[in-house]
Amino acid sequence: PPAQRVSSSTPFPPLASPVRLPASGRCGARGSILTLVMQKRPSSRLLVLNGEQHVLLFKFEHKRGPLAGQAFWATPGGGVDEGESFEDAARRELYEEVGMRVSEIGMQVAQRTAIFAMPTGEMVEADERYFLVRAETGAAVSHEYWTELEREVMAAHRWWSPAEIQSANEQIWPEDVSKMLIDAGAWPSIS
Question: Angle 5-146-77 (CA atoms, 0-180°, nearest 5)?
């Protein structure tokens, strides 16, 4: 079995509202300059589709810590380890979080930068690369190699159809997962 992973591979939502500064870049009564220093976090995310073209999402429910009370659905994936490529991280995360082994990961179909809070409350700026992966219909999802944190916060998994994503009442990250899959040619355009 793989070595125990650190908790930095679990996805978390971006800030509820972005930090905005005045056009001058200065704030406060004395016009001081606000400087935010954030940890950079390269990460590989997985758009796993089954034979029915449903996408796999995990439900995260935070019961304690700075993210307590937050619940959302997100794609599998996580942080890139030192010396690892985005592709290698995607392959590793697919095995660790989903239980699937592949010799070649699918193509990168999207990229985004997101600022969000980790379970510790630390703010990070994530460079997220999204890879398309095809799975068999009925493929089992295994949690055998999940970290302690993943076991605590990953409450469920579900394969979502395009229509279910469009009509979802729950928070899904990334918000534009449908557009990513349409742009990749994996899902039909929504009219």
Answer: 75
